[in-house]
Amino acid sequence: MAHPNQDSALAARWGLLLVLGVAGCNSTPTGPTPTPTPNVPTHSVSVVVFFDENENGNLDPQELGRLPDVEVQIGGRIGVSVIGSGTAVVPGVPEGDQTASVVLASLPMFFEAGEPRSVSVPATAPLEIPVIRPVGTNIKHAYMAAGDSISEGFGSSSGEGYRRLLARRLEVHWGPQAFVWYPGPGGGTSEDGLERIDNDLVNERPAYTFVQWGVNDWLNIECQADPTACDVLANLRAILDRVRAANSKPVLATITPTNVGASEQAPPEREEWVRLLNEEIRALALEQGALLVDVHAAMVAAGPTAALFADHVHPNDAGYEVIADAYFRAITGRR
After folding, report:
1. Would you state the torsion angle of the CA atoms of residues 312, 313, 317, 323, taken in this order, to the nearest 10 degrees?
2. Contact assessment for residue 281 and residue 254, using Cβ atoms and an 8 Å cutoff
3. pTM summary value
4. CA distance 160 to 23
């Protein structure tokens, strides 16, 4: 049996060991004390997204185009440009030297970002961000409607169909005066369009070419049984080839619905033919890298169809409003 004094000594010894153990667990690690990260001041940076027509990187006095809905990134922060001025405010940008760049996915089709810009934050003036649209020597704000009488505007009270409506909307959206015209002579099939396109591209030099042929190809007996069995798709493909070769931007539209029952030239089977052809046109646009304007889908969605037509195939003013909106949304990337 242990002596009482021995028990006291053992208890004191174990108590000391416990104290030392706890102290060891809570002791401060050895090594240098870490330096706290300083708080970097942040600032808002104003930018202007402009259409750099001559591609020199500078905002020149004659360059009036401004791009809205474009995302600009600076120092990991993003701002979005607005309609009219093309200005954006990028908030919370860390102080110091930063790089400003355009988020490519936010640009409309056929536009490209200019060179990234360096900026010292806080900035003393709005930063000018260039965006380009390479079209060679073509006229920068010219849009050519290459198509039949629907491109001409037959059936509208103005005789210009969707063209004047579209031009006005583009002017508000991008700034400079827009020219949307039809070289004529009106009517015809996709074969006629192929015969005309080379001269039209040389004479008009459009930045964009709107290809909208096919409505009248149904009148070809060989086409009526199967739109893929005749030359309409081959003609459209060849037209798009010519457009790209001329440095014009290719825009391919589906053909308008049929106002079924409005005349003997508008039987139900014609609309089924239109539906089949438009499936091929959508695939062709993807294949050829053309911008698709789904006129048919827009008019069906805006229906009833009869309320949008002046006759069996030509839209009225309300129909051309729908077509103008479809072109506008496709060209600008607006939803």
Report:
1. 150
2. yes
3. 0.87
4. 90
The residue out of 132, 148, 181 marking a domain boundary is 132
Q: Count of H helices and E strands in the chain?
A: 9, 13
**Number of structural domains found in the chain:** 2
Residue 209 falls inside a structural domain? yes
Contacts of 126 (CB under 8 A, 6+ apart): 46, 47, 48, 87
Strands 42-51 and 117-121: unpaired
CA angle (223 as vertex; 324, 143 as ends), nearest 5: 25
**Structure-derived torsion over alpha carbons of residues 275, 281, 283, 287, reported in degrees to the nearest 10:** 180
State which residues form the domain around 209: 139-332
Residue range 67-89, pLDDT digits in tens:
999 999 999 999 999 999 999 99
What is residue 240's three-state secondary structure?
helix
* CATH (domain of 196): 3.40.50.1110
